[in-house]
Design brief:
The chain is mainly α. Helices cover 58% and strands 0% of the residues. Helix 5 runs antiparallel to helix 6 and helix 10 runs antiparallel to helix 11. The longest helix is centred in the middle third of the chain and has 15 residues.
Length: 247
């Protein structure tokens, strides 16, 4: 499921300059990979199984959402202070018919059929206000259809009820960045990291934000390095090299 929204003009310009200096086409390809990361929709119902997002979701169908591509993203992490993880509340159990409906909604998300997913998830969200995975996936479907206000109305109360649900904070950060609210996006991603310091998507999205929008290369480097340590993603090394070229 494609959940990326790439913004790479500055990196494209940089890559072109590098090519003129004798760089390789690989540098250009690497620059185009900067897309915000989101976790994929929850793979299992928060209400029956385990629920599971770089700022604009990199998404694997129905799992976590996070701005996945290296883009200024699901779509990624806090400056330096790790936070304490909030206690996780018990997950409600879904009755068989509701669990089946949630599974159908996840299948719709995997097929990019967001309207059908909304049709299935909206009644579940009304019946199960304490099932964060259902509300999160509903917000993802709204967001994919560019129904931003509905996504915000779903995510904001979810994060208020469950500050430890870092996927919600991540997607809120993605939306804030898309709207040009860079400081708000940073707050959301830092709050996610305060809840879970190993949340790789937040580090990735923060790296993009600091590098491409806030012109704070040292902070960007920190988050890229943290993301690299957590994921082993070889692209992180390329982003760090591009960052060095701008300094």
């Amino acid at each position: 499921m494609k959940l990326t929204n790439c913004r790479f003009r500055s990196h494209l310009l940089l890559a072109s300059q590098l090519l003129l200096r004798g760089g390789t086409a690989l540098v250009l390809l690497l620059s185009l990979s900067h897309c915000a990361q989101l976790s994929a929709p929850d793979a299992a119902p928060e209400a029956a199984d385990q629920m599971t997002s770089r700022a604009e979701p990199q998404q694997q169908p129905a799992e976590h959402l996070s701005e996945q591509q290296h883009s200024p993203g699901q779509i990624t992490v806090p400056v330096t202070e790790p936070g304490l993880t909030a206690p996780v509340t018990p997950k409600p159990e879904l009755q068989p018919e509701l669990a089946q409906q949630f599974e159908q909604a996840k299948q719709s998300l995997r097929k990019n059929d967001y309207r059908q997913a909304i049709t299935l998830l909206e009644p579940l969200a009304q019946q199960l206000p304490d099932a964060p995975g259902i509300h999160y996936n509903l917000a993802v479907a709204y967001w994919q259809l560019q129904q931003t206000e509905q996504a915000l109305r779903t995510l904001t109360p979810l994060l208020e009820r469950r500050p430890d649900y870092v996927e919600a904070a991540n997607l809120l950060g993605v939306i804030a960045r898309q709207q040009g609210n860079f400081n708000q996006a940073r707050r959301y991603w830092l709050e996610a990291l305060a809840q879970r310091s190993d949340f790789a998507s937040a580090h990735k999205n923060l790296g993009f934000l600091y590098e491409l929008y806030l012109a704070q290369p040292e902070q960007a480097r920190h988050h890229y390095q943290q993301y690299q340590k957590l994921t082993g993603d070889p692209m992180a090394e390329a982003w760090l090299r591009l960052l060095e070229q701008q300094e």
